[in-house]
Specification:
With 407 residues, this protein is mainly beta. The protein contains 3 helices and 25 strands. The longest helix has 7 residues.
Length: 407
């Protein structure tokens, strides 16, 4: 069942910013609380996997199946997020994670006027981080239902369940069956694949693999350390590119792909009893709450991560999701909102969000869409953002279904 929200208000008074943040924020920064489920639901639908994509509208899909009139296809602007752990109606069942799909409607000025929200039961086990993704024709096998001229959709990290081969990378092409891209390291199960980024030049996929599932009792004991991997879907090459991190969470490239940034969210685990899937409350701040930077070095035709260094320590709480903009500024979701540093690791300021931010995405048009567990925020800044597909202008809202009894 879908829910439609048509009461979206944009506040032109910016949230609290650092005084030296003007080069990023600009003079006309504005924000809006697009959705809050705090008064109607205890479920945190907006935790991670925040991506913005374009999909063919229902009318476009109907036209493409017809006799062909030469009409211009119409696309829907859609946001996907994954939820936090949701308890089932039976205590004997494992918790679940749902995907939220939100189709946006805008007016001629580019403002969102309505949003249609739908809950999706994911085909993969416990989805987490996600990116927009386009699969090449050679990989989009006809037997998978995604063959022909290639396809586009969303690539998800699956944290897995107690079964073998359930954690890895799963691709959901628009309107087609999902594809399991990767589910083991040469026969050994991953721990709980959490976040992924695509190399902008060669298309390889770099992802983190912490031990979330085991510590949250929905995965078996890990078979490997908490690694960071590089996987190339064209060749099948899979390598460990980083170790020595306690709880690797978010990952992103700098604008020139010469630097990789990783967040270590070890402080959220609170001596093994806490969770990366929860808020920053109860965090053990004696543990790592750090953004690390690595240089990407090419040797023997392969990329390696070298020169690990502390890039930044979170001002409040623990960094989770991380992104870069075209100017090289680094953004991380933390307990106080989104903390922003320049390429030299100097703290520029904080986009303050009540309850903190766990996941977010950026667009070319200076927009940010922020997941704060039970809330979804839109922020419009001055700065041109990360090199992601240019979808158009304006905010991205969500609505929530008041029915909690969905599992």
């Amino acid at each position: 069942m879908a829910t439609i929200n048509s009461d979206i208000k944009v506040n032109r008074t910016p949230m609290q910013y650092h005084p030296d943040f003007a080069t990023v924020v600009g003079k006309d920064a504005r924000h809006a609380l697009l959705l809050s489920s705090a008064e109607t639901s205890r479920n945190a639908f907006f935790h991670t996997g925040c991506v913005l994509v374009r999909e063919p509208s229902a009318s476009s899909r109907r036209n493409s199946a017809g006799n062909g009139t030469g009409s211009v296809p119409i696309d829907d602007e859609v946001i996907y997020t994954t939820s936090n752990l949701l308890q089932t109606s039976s205590s004997s069942q494992l918790p679940a994670i749902l995907i939220s799909r939100v189709s946006l409607r805008r007016n001629s000025a580019g403002d969102v006027t309505a949003a249609e929200w739908t809950k999706l039961r994911p085909p993969m086990a416990m989805p987490a981080g996600a990116i927009p993704y386009q699969m090449k024709p050679a990989i989009a096998r006809p037997s998978s239902g995604a063959g022909g001229r290639g396809s586009s959709g969303v690539l998800y990290c699956a944290q897995g369940n107690p079964g073998p081969g359930t954690s890895g990378l799963f691709y959901m092409p628009t309107g087609r069956p999902p594809i399991n891209l990767l589910s083991n390291y040469y026969g050994r199960d991953f721990n709980s694949v959490y976040d992924v980024v695509q190399h902008p030049d060669d298309g390889s996929l770099w992802f983190t693999d912490p031990c979330i599932g085991f510590e949250q009792d929905f995965r078996k004991r890990p078979q490997m350390p908490c690694h960071v991997y590089r996987f190339h879907p064209d060749t099948g090459d899979l390598r460990v590119v980083a170790d020595g991190l306690n709880r690797p969470a978010g990952i992103c490239f700098g604008p020139d792909a010469a630097t990789v940034y990783l967040t270590d969210a070890d402080a959220l685990y609170n001596n093994g009893g806490g969770s990366i899937l929860g808020s920053n409350s109860g965090a053990d701040m004696r543990r790592a709450a750090t953004v690390y930077a690595y240089d990407v070095l090419r040797r023997g035709g392969s990329d390696f991560l070298t020169n690990k260094r502390v890039f930044a320590y979170a001002l409040r709480g623990t960094p989770l999701g991380i992104r870069c903009d075209a100017a090289g500024n680094v953004y991380a979701g933390c307990a106080d909102g989104v903390e922003v540093w320049n390429a030299g690791g100097v703290l520029l300021g904080v986009i303050e969000v009540p309850g903190g931010v766990s996941s977010f995405c950026l667009s070319h048009d200076g927009e940010m869409f922020l997941c704060s567990e039970q809330q979804l925020w839109w922020v419009h800044l001055k700065q041109t953002m990360e090199s992601v597909p240019r979808w158009g202008a304006a905010p991205v809202p969500m609505t929530v279904d008041p029915d909690d009894n969905f599992i």
